[in-house]
Amino acid sequence: MTRRPYRQIVVFARGGGWGTDRQVDGHDRVAVIRGTDFAAVRSGRTDAVPRRWEKRTLIAPRRVRPDDVLLEISGGSAARGQSTGRSLFVGPDVLPAFDYPVIPASFCRVVRFDPEVVDPRYAYYGLRDMYLSGRAGDYENQSTGISNFQFERFLDAELLRVPPMDEQRRIVAVLAAFDDKIEINDRVVTASEELLRAEFDALAVTSGGTVPVTAMVEFNPRTPPPDRDGAPYVDMAALSTYVAGIDSWSHRVPRGGSRFRNGDTLLARITPCLENGKAAWVDFLAPDETATGSTEFVVMRARAGVPAQFPYFLARDERFRGHAIRKMAGSSGRQRVNAAHIAEFLVAVPDPARLAGFGERADAAFAHLTALRAETRVLEATRDALLPELMSGRLHLP
């Protein structure tokens, strides 16, 4: 079976840009996709992708087209064991979701493949196999604390099995079926949260005045200690900036940190995580199980008579987060907010009937979203187990 270096199948590769944050003569507005945006773009969220002004003459050669692949070439996270080399396939639904031309950020590269030799999505799955297997780390070097993907070395050293086109397309059909279902689940989760967020915002319209937030929410509440032999542990990387769920955690012997249980909300209290909107809803634990997490979390829990999801949507509220950000203190780059200062926030008191109705709908929706995310984890694990078998040819599709 033919194995080719990527240099033989890549027909175009170009680094991205960052432009400027304000309008300048000779510059046009663009959307700039970073490596950190890959997951959100896959799930249909484009609002967090930065909009910048790029020099007009540089847009056309960098502009992303359908069937391109965006490859992260700088960044990564040694602390989390995350190398560079993450990739995003630009399917038919990606670009129409943007209001401006799309270019990759300066830490990424747009890669285009020869469609006469390789199905572009098949080549993308080769890149994904490279990343998940850890081979992407073989092409890294360190420069001033930043990991850099050695693209030229990768082009010559990384080999892709290139079977006949009909076999490539059969493999793509199988793997894409998983990806498409995962994407549908993610989009349902995102849309459902947006609807509930709009309903939460509307509760303030029926307000009967304001009370201190502590009348409705407990901050860092008392929680039974975790199992001394080991308990689930959540780090900051597991918190999303746009959806509630926690999809990655580890187990470790408790060594302090925050404590929480199902139904609690985690709010990042340190810069830049708080400004970026990192928050999460805890729903993955066993009944009565206590988990631990980063010391940089504020744990929020609804008081009796308040919907359990109320603190989560409060954590997503721009006014509440703005209050928390203004209360941050500390040295530049390491500022934090204390729970006691967050508790000074005044919250509108909703109409009791509407608040109860919101709670019923949120309960039903979050139960459904929890089930969807559990299904997604199974789909991802199955796809990632099939990926190396199909790409290597060890598993043959008739």
TrEMBL record:
The enzyme class is hydrolase
Q: CDD domains, per this entry?
A: RMtype1_S_EcoEI-TRD1-CR1_like
SUPFAM superfamilies xref list: DNA methylase specificity domain
Q: What InterPro entries is this protein classified in?
A: Restrct_endonuc_typeI_TRD, Restrct_endonuc_typeI_TRD_sf, Type-I_RS_S_subunit
Transmembrane segments annotated in the record for this chain: none
Where does the source fall among the domains of life?
Bacteria
> Per the database record, which ranges form the Type I restriction modification DNA specificity domain?
99-186
Any one Pfam family here would be: Methylase_S
Q: What is its EC number?
A: 3.1.21.-
Keywords, ordered alphabetically = DNA-binding, Endonuclease, Hydrolase, Nuclease, Restriction system
Q: Name one GO molecular function term.
A: hydrolase activity
Q: Which family does it belong to?
A: Belongs to the type-I restriction system S methylase family.
Q: What is the protein name given in its UniProt record?
A: Restriction endonuclease subunit S
